[in-house]
Amino acid sequence: MTLVAGVDSSTQSCKVVIRDAESGALVREGRAPHPEGTEVHPDHWWTALQGAIEQAGGLADVAAVSVGAQQHGMVCLDENGEVVRPALLWNDTRSAGAAADLVAELGGPKAWAEAVGSVPVASFTVTKLRWLAREEPDNARRTRSVCLPHDWLTWRLAGRPDTIATDRGDASGTGYWSPATGEYRTDLLELAMGRVPELPRVLGPAEQAGTAEHGGALLAPGTGDNMAAALGVGMRPGDVVVSIGTSGTAFACSETPSADAAGLVAGFADATGRYLPLVCTLNAARVLDAAARMLGVTPQGLSDLALRAPAGSGGLVLVPYLEGERTPNRPDATGSLHGLRLSNSSPEHLARAAVEGMLCGLADALDALGVEPARVLLIGGGARSEAVRRIAPTVFGRPVLVPTPGEYVADGAAKQAAWLLSGEPEPPHWESGGTERYEGDPTPGLRERYHEAAQE
Ligand SMILES: Nc1ncnc2c1ncn2[C@@H]1O[C@H](COP(=O)(O)OP(=O)(O)O)[C@@H](O)[C@H]1O
Ligand SMILES: O=C(CO)[C@@H](O)[C@H](O)COP(=O)(O)O
């Protein structure tokens, strides 16, 4: 049996799956937590990766490895390859002002959408580099090269060779690489930083990034976590995937690049050579964590409570902007409760309002994609909640399919590794565990009440 490993180095944790390259059967797996915070030293990702690999029984018998990771994070390296400062993550909003400045300086949102497929908000790497140049000029001067979380981990697995590699998917989240042309826009980096640091080489979908320093496994290009999830879940044309992790994302696959001047849809590339229009919110699974904490219950307890309350939570609306928000672009917003009455002042109503509020944000994300999906697939840690699975169709106004709970980002990375080994033109097709279908009547007035509350 030839084994491949896939890594998901996402916001909250690192997961490793080891699968049979031929059938995709799961052989072993491991995981380790990441520290809290929106600014994290990459060494923590490396430590977690080592822990997860060890728990998964090591990589000694693995033929190829691929790393999927959280998108956008700014990793700055000095002339010796040392990390200049802790990475600013995708959910760090301190560069919101820099984003607004950059958008204005290039001539507005349309100019950015045409240049790189996306209008940058604080999540995008380019805005973090502008923030660095303005707020930490010494660190900006010491920065010789800039890369992303998955690029850095792949480079570390390779034993820190002279060059760093990335892929189309993750490059498309920088704000200085164009999915439409497949080229870096170094003029935009110049605009952000006043100079152009060294950048990773952008590999094709099944191109080799290197060889692991220990054990000699081949290293596949890796990609951003959403692109890896698309591959892992076996996305088909017409599918929309809604992922409820630390971020909430809704994405479709497309044969052509997109450029939304309204700035809601990020025009990413995917991990197969195609495109991945995507809408991202900052507030997803952690809204449920916060609600469970406030109510003093476990995630299971929150789900039980939410399912005991009436649809629409008796008019109670929770606007879930606990970390500010990215879509809509409201980096300084906070969460709020609306419509509180004696009749809905119960743990059950609050639990349901948290689930419904979080899902209303994702329903808007789904709508913003502007596609009529043939299937909506629900994945990510939050989809493990029974309440989320049962309430989602009543908020989205359409049935949802929930694949067997699993680590679809790590699985997609494992598929990339198997693809590299196969040398085939398309990634391997592995049998999936099937999906469970959830249906429910749309809740009257829910999204209207949410929109009214979110605008206050
Ligand atoms: N049964 C559950 N019910 C509700 N939330 C859950 C459940 N299991 C996991 N989660 C949540 O999923 C989140 C982690 O999801 P994950 O997709 O792994 O995130 P990320 O990829 O951003 O690190 C956590 O916030 C966790 O609380
Ligand atoms: O910023 C985005 C997408 O543009 C996020 O989706 C990050 O890629 C983090 O993902 P998770 O840790 O929530 O999976």
From TrEMBL:
<keyword id="KW-0067">ATP-binding</keyword>
<dbReference type="InterPro" id="IPR006000">
    <property type="entry name" value="Xylulokinase"/>
</dbReference>
<dbReference type="GO" id="GO:0042732">
    <property type="term" value="P:D-xylose metabolic process"/>
</dbReference>
<keyword id="KW-0119">Carbohydrate metabolism</keyword>
<dbReference type="GO" id="GO:0005524">
    <property type="term" value="F:ATP binding"/>
</dbReference>
<dbReference type="Pfam" id="PF02782">
    <property type="entry name" value="FGGY_C"/>
</dbReference>
<dbReference type="GO" id="GO:0005998">
    <property type="term" value="P:xylulose catabolic process"/>
</dbReference>
<comment type="function">
    <text>Catalyzes the phosphorylation of D-xylulose to D-xylulose 5-phosphate.</text>
</comment>
<dbReference type="InterPro" id="IPR018485">
    <property type="entry name" value="FGGY_C"/>
</dbReference>
<feature type="region of interest" description="Disordered">
    <location>
        <begin position="423"/>
        <end position="456"/>
    </location>
</feature>
<keyword id="KW-0547">Nucleotide-binding</keyword>
<dbReference type="GO" id="GO:0004856">
    <property type="term" value="F:D-xylulokinase activity"/>
</dbReference>
<feature type="site" description="Important for activity">
    <location>
        <position position="8"/>
    </location>
</feature>
<feature type="binding site">
    <location>
        <begin position="71"/>
        <end position="72"/>
    </location>
    <ligand>
        <name>substrate</name>
    </ligand>
</feature>
<feature type="active site" description="Proton acceptor">
    <location>
        <position position="225"/>
    </location>
</feature>
<protein>
    <recommendedName>
        <fullName>Xylulose kinase</fullName>
        <ecNumber>2.7.1.17</ecNumber>
    </recommendedName>
</protein>
<comment type="similarity">
    <text>Belongs to the FGGY kinase family.</text>
</comment>
<dbReference type="InterPro" id="IPR043129">
    <property type="entry name" value="ATPase_NBD"/>
</dbReference>
<dbReference type="Pfam" id="PF00370">
    <property type="entry name" value="FGGY_N"/>
</dbReference>
<dbReference type="InterPro" id="IPR018484">
    <property type="entry name" value="FGGY_N"/>
</dbReference>
<feature type="domain" description="Carbohydrate kinase FGGY C-terminal">
    <location>
        <begin position="241"/>
        <end position="419"/>
    </location>
</feature>
<dbReference type="InterPro" id="IPR050406">
    <property type="entry name" value="FGGY_Carb_Kinase"/>
</dbReference>
<keyword id="KW-0418">Kinase</keyword>
<keyword id="KW-0859">Xylose metabolism</keyword>
<dbReference type="InterPro" id="IPR000577">
    <property type="entry name" value="Carb_kinase_FGGY"/>
</dbReference>
<dbReference type="InterPro" id="IPR018483">
    <property type="entry name" value="Carb_kinase_FGGY_CS"/>
</dbReference>
<feature type="domain" description="Carbohydrate kinase FGGY N-terminal">
    <location>
        <begin position="4"/>
        <end position="231"/>
    </location>
</feature>
<feature type="compositionally biased region" description="Basic and acidic residues">
    <location>
        <begin position="426"/>
        <end position="456"/>
    </location>
</feature>
<keyword id="KW-0808">Transferase</keyword>
